[in-house]
Amino acid sequence: MRHIIPVPQTIFDDIKANPSPERWSEQSMSSTINKTFLQAGFPLFHPPRMEIPDESPRELSITSWLFDEALRQVLEDYVNEPYIQATQKLRNVLWESCTFGLHLGAISSIFLMLEDELMHVFCESLFHEMDEAIYAESSGTNAQIDKLFMDAKIAVGGVHADLTYSTCYFDYHADGSFLDKIRFRYTLPWPLNTYIRSSTFQGYTAIATLLLRLKRTKHLLDRKTFTQERRGMRLHAMRVRMIWFVNAFWSYIMTTILYTETRAFCAAIQKLENVEDITEMHESYMSRIVDRCLLGDMTRAVYTSVLRILDQVQELAQMFVQENTEHENYFDEAMKAMENDFSRDTEFISVSLGIIAKKGGFPWCKLSSISLTAGLLSTS
User: Which one-letter DSSP state was computed for residue 211?
Assistant: First the structure.
């Protein structure tokens, strides 16, 4: 009778027979001892690798998230404080060494007619020369206008003490009237020109042109149409209606939009800690004032109506200057056409501003619309 010698079982056989995780945890130490013994006695023997089951995906995601959060916090602590210190130093350099605030004030003075009397002095001199018919579009216009602007800067001083930053020139290739071709240029020094981009000066130029037209219109209504000579009631009534419109629109542009938005922008930029946000903040400010001054693409028709009324003021001023205008054959027909055009344009502007205020939730448009409507009703 054959005797079967039993083959001793190893830890591997036991694992195959009972592969539960509980069993693995109980035999982990004995498995390590057996593997060490077999490896020492039989160097060519390689025991099969025992795969430990992976952690659940949820446990892995939580562990990964905790690690990411800890790493992020460490990096913030490591980078944030030096970054804040560097930003504060740069901010001090911009405002103290580079006089950023003075340059912003000079730009507001030239293009927005705020801060000081520079543009008022310049406009008075320019309009006087225009009234005397001295200034006409010629080869010498550029030099004449630049001299007037330079004289105004010397007279006002202040933020314009350095005369090299700003210039005024005449763009012969531009479209429009004489005033539409007057341009202003402001050259910001480095590093300020990296924060205020040159592309934003297109918006500044558009606003400056509108303000020059409004300023000229107010000058004509106050000077040219104010006479001691007796004139017909139709001329005076038309003058009153135009004065109401121009003053209401001037107040809307200068006070409601430019002054309010500029003060808010200056206050916000003074509190700004991260100087890298200056560019975005300034472009947002420019976009707001350009749109609210009706210079955007969506309000082009409204702006065109405003320009037509400003042109009508020029026509009215010519009627006041000419003698015996009321006795001419064309007077009644010309006055009737002017009155109809003025009423139609004023009503269109008022209604358009009311629609913009309603759809966009802009209270300033609503107030301007009400003001223009009141003027239209009270002077009709």
Answer: H
The 10 Å CB-count burial string (b at 16+, else e) for 334-350 is ebeebbebbeebbebbb
This prediction's pTM: 0.74
Q: Tell me the CB-side half-sphere exposure of residue 83, using CA atoms within 13 A.
A: 10
- Determine how many CB atoms are found less than 10 A away from the CB of residue 319: 22
Could you give the dihedral angle defined by the CA atoms of residues 170, 172, 173 and 177, in that order, rounded to the nearest 10 degrees? 80
- Identify the top-confidence range among 45-59, 77-91, 255-269: 255-269
- Please state, as a whole number, how many other Cβ atoms lie within 10 Å of the Cβ of residue 240: 15
The secondary structure of the chain in percent helix, strand, coil, rounded to multiples of 5, reads: 75, 5, 25
User: What does R_g of the chain's alpha carbons equal in angstroms?
Assistant: 39
* Alpha carbons 278 and 269: distance in angstroms, whole number: 7
pLDDT of 38 over the 50 cut: no
